[in-house]
Amino acid sequence: MAFTRLCSLTDVKEPGALRVELEAVGIEGREAVAVVRFEGEVFAIEDLCSHAEVPLSEGEVEEFKGAPTIECWLHGSCFDLTSGRPTNLPATEPVPVYPVRVEGDDVLVDVDSPIGN
């Protein structure tokens, strides 16, 4: 596992999401990750809805059917922040989620090791 610092914890609202352009932190081959805070936890999810290809970081972060989720603002699909699976339609395909570590104020994410969907 290769963890990379994506942002400061203070950069992410609680609850909320922050889009991090991966190229800006030296990671090639992927566009962006949404770093998400919800109820004291930090998550990382690919910042692209699998249904409509819009940034998930622009959506609401909330609990949906007992799971921490982020909602796609365009059509309302929610994605479980722990698994990447959609919790409602119209999305049917999961999006990658990544391991996260918080060290002090640094949010570190391993974008090379997605957590199984």
Automatic annotation (TrEMBL):
InterPro entries tied to this protein: Rieske_2Fe-2S, Rieske_2Fe-2S_sf
UniProt key word Iron: yes
CDD domains on file: Rieske_RO_ferredoxin
MF-aspect GO terms: 2 iron, 2 sulfur cluster binding; dioxygenase activity; metal ion binding; monooxygenase activity; oxidoreductase activity, acting on paired donors, with incorporation or reduction of molecular oxygen
Keyword presence, Iron-sulfur: yes
Residue ranges of every copy of the Rieske domain listed in the record: 9-109
Coiled coil: none
SUPFAM superfamilies xrefs: ISP domain
Name of this protein: 3-phenylpropionate/trans-cinnamate dioxygenase ferredoxin subunit
Organism of derivation: Trujillonella endophytica
